[in-house]
């Protein structure tokens, strides 16, 4: 197949001699368009107040204002906001990584009455917008006193149909003969799950953890209505509130946005080698 692809590519290059150059130019243009806002955000975060509010776009600050980091934490409790976001996103991600593989394994390797109907029912919940669930969740959490608490922020997202689908698709690719051989050798289901199934699904688990963490770090709507005190705000809500209260301090707002971006980017860089493999294994195109 690789030889055929190479021959097809060679023929296309003969028909269109400049196709490779044009493709590279288009890719670089797209990359520059995608990265330009990030570059400007980094530049804006380290600009002085005069440069940030001068009315002209400054790509390279005349003097890098590292003091903006200190000023940001003095202007608002961004350390608390960041801690809340990481704690909430981390707990939700941990829940998905613990329970979604278990459910996915059951759907992929076990037979029980109504399995397909239950799986379709779970998938159908993906079509229900969060706005539909938001009001009853708010009312119920208000009644039990869970508003403005960590459990109130975490509980609605402890599991998702997407996570179950991702794990089911990944584990369906494990040969049934491998699982059956382990059962014949006397291995229990927990041993099979721990020693055979999970090690072969590391890429898919990494993708699941990355997607879940990034989504929860960027979650805005539910923390907005479920938190009331400043101490319980997540980073997205803290940034929004800070922007309303100090809308002229664009450099500090950009610095706060950089706080939201850096951990997500670091996590992506650390796990990027698993992403393509994980998505390919799960059959998501």
TrEMBL record:
Transmembrane regions: 21-46, 81-105, 117-138, 150-167, 204-225, 249-271
Keywords: Cell membrane, Membrane, Transmembrane, Transmembrane helix, Transport
UniProt organism field: Cutibacterium avidum ATCC 25577
Membrane topology: Multi-pass membrane protein
GO cellular component, one term: plasma membrane
Recorded family membership: Belongs to the binding-protein-dependent transport system permease family.
Pfam families, per database record: BPD_transp_1
Domain ABC transmembrane type-1: 82-271
Database matches in PANTHER family: ABC TRANSPORTER PERMEASE PROTEIN MG189-RELATED, ABC TRANSPORTER PERMEASE PROTEIN MG189-RELATED-RELATED
Subcellular location: Cell membrane
GO biological process: transmembrane transport
Primary localization class, coarse: membrane
Protein name according to UniProt: Sugar ABC superfamily ATP binding cassette transporter, membrane protein
